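In response to the reviewer comment on reproducibility (Comment 2.3), we provide here a single inverse folding case reported in full, input and output, so that an independent group could reproduce the run without further information from us. The structure tokens appear first.
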């Protein structure tokens, strides 16, 4: 694809998925880099008399134990050598917080996406109805107003293969739409607020919408394309603000507000609805 001139300094496709979601490679698998991470393990612990399931993710070099709760449940991050007793002791000491957060998320479950004709997905805050055509000569995705036509090679009677290929094709389509959109919005707000435009990348992160580093690189999750444009712009302003304040101090939030005056309302809306964007 030939990019418009003003996007050239922003776009970099060479490492578009630099930040990957935490996904196991398979039963008993160990990631590259001398066993830096092992396959996540599902466990359960009793808190206040009720069983609570959690996913244990171990990594070499991890310091301490981290607890994260979202629409998928509780994830616990620990080093390769932290004993289970120490991990579950920490969970037990924070049982009130854990149960409170699980309760808050109970009405925000991530619903699995259906990959069949008539199902809907969200694009820029608007629903698109899937129209899936199996047995096609080649894989292709085309948007026509409020419909997304997904052509896959899987045979008509191969439901699982159709779903798998349709999901892969749609994810690829989202990414194709995401990079120019994110780059353009970043360029616009950077110029508006006297910042040199940073380099823009895509990520497949499922737990954070964006990130910024000291090398002036900003990464956005392609899943943000499911949100309405105002929410995307809030995340763009949030990450650009890190170019001036690489923290979340009061000065940082003041910068976010300067760029996006209604950021507080938009942040709340994104936090309350983000589970709708994480089904795939």
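Designed residues, in position order:
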């Amino acid at each position: 694809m030939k990019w418009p001139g003003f996007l050239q300094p922003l776009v970099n496709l060479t490492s578009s998925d630099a930040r990957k979601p935490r996904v196991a490679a398979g039963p008993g698998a160990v990631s590259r880099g001398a066993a830096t991470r092992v396959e996540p393990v599902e466990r359960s612990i009793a808190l206040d008399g009720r069983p609570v399931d959690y996913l244990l993710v171990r990594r070499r070099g991890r310091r301490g134990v981290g607890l994260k709760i979202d629409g998928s449940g509780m994830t616990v991050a620990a080093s390769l050598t932290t004993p289970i007793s120490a991990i579950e002791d920490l969970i037990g000491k924070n049982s009130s917080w854990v149960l409170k957060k699980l309760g808050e998320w109970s009405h925000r479950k991530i619903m699995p996406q259906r990959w069949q004709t008539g199902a809907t997905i969200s694009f820029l805050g608007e629903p698109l109805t899937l129209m899936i055509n199996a047995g096609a000569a080649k894989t292709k995705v085309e948007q026509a107003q409020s419909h997304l036509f997904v052509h896959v090679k899987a045979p008509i009677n191969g439901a699982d293969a159709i779903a798998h290929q349709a999901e892969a094709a749609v994810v690829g389509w989202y990414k194709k739409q995401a990079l120019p959109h994110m780059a353009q919005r970043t360029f616009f707000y950077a110029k508006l607020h006297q910042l040199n435009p940073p380099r823009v990348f895509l990520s497949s992160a499922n737990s954070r919408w964006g990130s910024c580093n000291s090398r002036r690189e900003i990464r956005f999750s392609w899943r943000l394309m499911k949100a309405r444009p105002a929410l995307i712009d809030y995340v763009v302003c949030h990450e650009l603000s890190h170019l001036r304040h690489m923290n979340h101090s009061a000065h940082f939030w003041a910068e976010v507000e300067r760029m996006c005056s209604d950021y507080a309302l938009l942040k709340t809306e994104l936090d309350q609805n983000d589970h709708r964007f994480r089904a795939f």
